[in-house]
């Protein structure tokens, strides 16, 4: 009886031992298969490198299942170095392309527009008709008479002879007050709405407008959407007090594009401004915040309608240092200006067709640079 029990016990131990050996063997096989199925980081790197390298430097394919052979090849280290060098070079080239608009591929225009789709309003006053306006009429306006409307505060028969009905007497005050400025802007807005054109652009009588660049810029935006584009003169939103009536007031802050550099508004957005800008409402809106015309435009668009200003460094006013605009970049600018900056003459610094004494604003020299076929430009400019 004891012998029989001993035999059974011995057989049980042998069976259990055999079962454990079988389980361990199967587990080891599965682990080996998983390791062989997943490529290590070195193989992934080499595959990326092989896809980047030229075909004329191909080497015989090695077996991925022989790690000893891979480690013994000294060319592998060079391969990894070349791989990461290529990555670094590609990243630098991409960054250079993004920072250089000349290298970057230009986006196709959103719309095909022409100068006839743009309404350009020039704000001036009668005392500057000869001192400032004559210069504009001889330069950029001469090529864009049909698109340009001059808003002034007095009758001028000579001006009418040159541009006809595009000389508009607003009958506003000749003072440089916020009320007089807002009065002229109100007339500008109403005349633009009557025109039905796709874009409304406002400039001052000390601005040069490059129509080619303006058309190119605006073609990147759909005129039916809410577009307000220009350049702020401040480095922060302007703070104002909005008068709500019954002695109630509230603080507001918003960005605005300075009228001294010029700005443009799409037709779709201009229509939305109507309750606060048309038919004399603009003057009432300006009084609510007691700020000039360009600030009131920003208030209506940003604070009331909630549309953000699109900033463009292609617009320039006399409030910035214009000598920092290089001659090689002049053809890319939408507007230029001149005047005084920090008690010094402020104009584009360039050697042009005319000396500074004859052309202190540099507008004539800029015009001859952009349009050398102009009859009064020196022949050597062509």
Summarize the structure.
Helix content is 42%, strand content 14%. It is of the alpha/beta class. The strands form four sheets. It has a seven-stranded mixed sheet with strand order 3-2-1-4-9-6-10. Strands 5-11 form a two-stranded antiparallel ribbon. The chain has a two-stranded antiparallel ribbon with strand order 7-8.
List the helices and strands and how they pair.
Blueprint: H1 2-37, H2 41-52, H3 67-71, H4 75-99, E1 118-123, H5 129-138, E2 148-152, H6 157-163, E3 167-169, H7 178-195, E4 199-204, E5 208-209, H8 211-218, E6 228-230, E7 238-245, E8 248-254, E9 263-266, H9 267-272, H10 274-277, H11 281-289, H12 293-304, E10 310-311, E11 335-336, E12 339-341, E13 344-346, H13 363-370
Parallel strand pairs: 1-2, 1-4, 2-3, 6-10
Antiparallel strand pairs: 4-9, 5-11, 6-9, 7-8, 12-13
Helix pairs in contact: 2-4, 7-11, 11-12
Explain this structure to me?
Helix content is 42%, strand content 14%. It is extended. The longest helix has 36 residues, at 2-37. By secondary structure, it is α/β, with parallel strands linked by helices. A hairpin with a 2-residue loop joins strand 12 and strand 13 (344-346). The strands form four sheets. It has a seven-stranded mixed β-sheet. The model is unreliable at 35-72 and 97-104 (pLDDT under 50). The chain has 13 helices and 13 strands.
Shape: extended
Biggest sheet layout: 7 strands, mixed
Which bin fits the share of residues in helices?
Answer: 40-55%
Number of DSSP strands?
13
Low-confidence stretches are 35-72, 97-104
N-to-C span = 125 Å
Order of strands in the sheet with the most strands? 3-2-1-4-9-6-10
DSSP strand content = 5-15%
Average residue-wise pLDDT: 83
Count helical runs: 13
The ordered H/E elements are HHHHEHEHEHEEHEEEEHHHHEEEEH
Rg over CA atoms, rounded to whole Å, is: 36 Å
What structural class do helix, strand and pairing data support?
alpha/beta
